[in-house]
What we know:
Layout: E1 3-8, H1 12-27, E2 31-32, E3 41-46, H2 51-70, E4 75-80, H3 81-86, H4 89-93, E5 99-101, H5 106-114, E6 121-123, E7 142-146, E8 148-149, H6 160-164, E9 168-169, H7 172-184, E10 189-193, H8 211-219, E11 226-230, H9 239-247, E12 254-256, H10 264-269, H11 276-289, E13 294-301, H12 308-321, E14 325-330, H13 349-371, E15 378-386, E16 394-398, E17 403-407, E18 415-423, E19 427-432, H14 434-440
Parallel strand pairs: 1-2, 1-3, 3-4, 4-5, 5-6, 7-10, 10-11, 12-13, 13-14, 17-19
Antiparallel strand pairs: 8-9, 15-16, 15-18, 16-17, 18-19
Helix pairs in contact: 8-9, 12-13
The structure holds iron/sulfur cluster.
Amino acid sequence: MKRYHVTTFGCQMNEHDSERMKGMLESLGYMEASEPADADLILFNTCSIREKADERFVAHLRQASGLKRRDPERIIGVGGCWAQSVKDDVFRQFPFVDVAFGPGQVHKLAEFLTADSLTAQGFFEFEGVTGRLPAKRARPFQAWVQISQGCNMNCAYCIVPSTRGREVSRPLAELVAEVERLAADGVREVTLLGQNVNAYGRDLRPQRASFSQLMRALDGVPGLERVRYTSPHPKDMREDVVRAHAQLRTVCEHVHLPLQAGSSRILEAMRRTYTRERFLDRVALIREHVPDIALTTDVIVGFPGETEEDFAHTLEVCEEVGFDGAFTFVFSPRRGTEAASITEGLVAHEVAVERMQRLVEVVQRRARERAQRFVGRTLDVLVEGPSRTDPSKLRGRSRHNKAVNFTGLASPGEIVPVQIASATSQTLAGELSLLAAADAR
Ligand code: SF4
């Protein structure tokens, strides 16, 4: 039996695509190897969001070329956004690569592997929706569900529209059927994936659909306990989506709402299509309907043209909102994006790094303050496995998407009540509430 190994870089969408790649390969009779050295087929699912991502991937690829020199029968494949961003140049840069494919062409890998000749080939059309391929899930009780592929936005720093194409939504009935199958197969929690989930359904014909409509349709699926989603765009965070959080049992009390910058001038330069006021207005709407909701975000520091005053606006918004968590990045120009061609007002790296330190201080302090609201409460936690920091404890996630480390006996996939004793900016700690567990039974 032939064996494969997949190394994944980047975002949740790539994790999803890798699960589909594995599911497809196993449907072809391949088996997963734990190390590239034990695999006949070595695959890399690449990311192209930041400069850094590329360097790490190249180091892995060099190792794979060494393995191929030892066994020329091995097949090396490169998929994902970086492959799509350079296309056939993959083979010029790395002549030992046998197959390259974009995020919309994972299914072509099967064609390549079952074809008679294995001459090097690249597949870069935007035609396939990876979400229709069989999946090998990392956890039996959690599943990624791709609801759309691509993005119609043009954020100046982002390469995704050029590597994943225009938005293509999957039909609502197809998604409901998939989630019904997953729930029947033991999945308790699904995460709906799209570059811009709350634009879901606008492109569907003849019958358009909406993201809130999809969440309402999933809410009744037997056995499904939790619905999460990522990423929404602030411009499309409409009242119907917010009301779904307030009204639907399965929709979790967490929204990841990327801010990127607190200055409306920089947001305009980033082509984010909303202002600081619009973002704060969306936060107010969400908290009006779900006061206890957890809000997390993404922030970029050092975008070209960012002044100290602009950055002060970013700190003000983070201070005012008090996010439960944030992913923070120093701007890095991506080849082929509008921002990469900006030469005016560039922010020196050391200035950006210093701003990042101040930002992290504000974000972590506010997240720690916000997390204290959970202390003394009993939260439902979906158990994921042993704690990463203390093997004598278990780890899971609350509906607010807070990581919880706790003492007590429970199995992965179970949803158990945990009494929260303490909170840091990142995690909550507590113990299984036997009382609440008894009441629940
Ligand atoms: S919304 Fe903007 S940042 Fe997000 S994937 Fe689309 S272009 Fe990129």
